[in-house]
Structure formats: structure tokens, C-alpha cells
Amino acid sequence: MIALHPQFITDTAGKKLVVLPQSEFDILMEELDDAEDVRLYDEAKKDNEPSIRLEEAMEVLKAERKKLGK
Questions:
Q1: What's the farthest any 2 CA atoms get from each other in the chain?
Q2: Quick one: 69 exposed, middle or buried, by C-beta within 10 A (0-12, 13-18, 19+)?
Q3: Over 80: is that where the pLDDT of 53 sits?
Q4: Which of 4, 18, 23, 58 is 20 to 30 A from residue 47's alpha carbon, by CA?
Q5: Residue 31: which domain range?
Q6: Mind listing the pLDDT tens digit for each residue in 9-23?
């Protein structure tokens, strides 16, 4: 876990806000992005849909484009 150094401020409406150094914010955003990737991967694996290898998918796409004249 990363060490955070938050500062807490209150806006004019009395709402509490958190301020982080940019570097810590960037790390948090990267961690959230990684966690989202894992969640999406896990979700995709649950579907039990048949899958094909990337190379095969690329060949199918190439053939479809060729049919469309692209």
C-alpha cells in the first residue's frame, strides 16, 4: 500500500475535501485503473464464452476487411 499524505480542507459550504500531492494522486489513479482491468478480466472470464487466440481473431478481421474492400 502506498503512503498517502492527505490534507483536509473545508469549502465555503462546510463540505470536507481531501487534497493530495500530485504524485500520490497519480499513483492512486494508476492503482484504480489496474483494479478496474482485473475486475473486467474476471468478469470476462465468468462469461464462459468460447474464445479464440488473438492471431486467429486478426485473421478473421483481415478477411472481413478484404471482403469489404478495405
A1: 62
A2: exposed
A3: yes
A4: 58
A5: 7-68
A6: 999 999 999 999 999
